[in-house]
Amino acid sequence: MNPERSASQETLGPGFNEKAREVRQEIGDRLRWIRAHHPEGPFSLEALAARSKIAKRRLASAESTDGANLTIETLVKIAHSLDIDRVAYFIDSQVFEDVNAQLALLREFQTRNVSSVALRTSHAPDIPPSTRAQLQKALMGIVASLDGASEDDTGQR
Q: Which site among 22, 74, 124, 144 is 20 to 30 Å from 15 CA-CA?
């Protein structure tokens, strides 16, 4: 073990190592989840390694029980390769839930063969999270209404 690193960890106080292990575990869990549930997936470790240009061994280590110490650059590469623009996806529970809800909506659109959705605005393209959530809710309402509209008078689809 690197004595300099060990000394710096000791100064961080009790619980540091446990918290770091928990965060690594959460990152590994989220990485496994997105590989299995991504709209373009599921992705094997080999496929994600090729897509992200990160060694399969490194990805497997990140998903292991103890997790790997990943750099910010590695997390950015993984997120970017999966078209996730919010890198905090891997460490922030709220971002994880928000992005997964957006991906679920995308999967639903793919299931219904929706090829595009046009959003026109006279404002800057950066949509605040609250507006994004309202838009997502509205789109889910449209999808739900399509279920009812697709039934004919006999109740058959």
A: 74
- Model confidence over 62-115: pLDDT tens digits? 998 777 788 899 999 999 999 998 989 999 999 999 999 888 888 888 888 877
Arithmetic mean of pLDDT over the chain: 81
- The answer to whether residues 124 and 131 touch, using CB atoms and an 8 Å cutoff, is no
Name 139's Cβ contacts closer than 8 Å, sequence gap at least 6: 105, 117
The pLDDT value given to residue 148:
65
In one-letter notation, the amino acid at residue 78 is I
Tokens for 50? 């090729």
Q: Check if the beta carbon of residue 96 is closer than 8 Å to that of residue 89.
A: yes
Going from the C-alpha of 127 to that of each of 5, 109, 134, 142, the distances in angstroms are 41, 20, 11, 20
Q: Is the dihedral of CA 62, 68, 72, 73 positive or negative?
A: negative
How crowded is residue 102: how many other Cβ atoms within 10 Å of its Cβ? 18
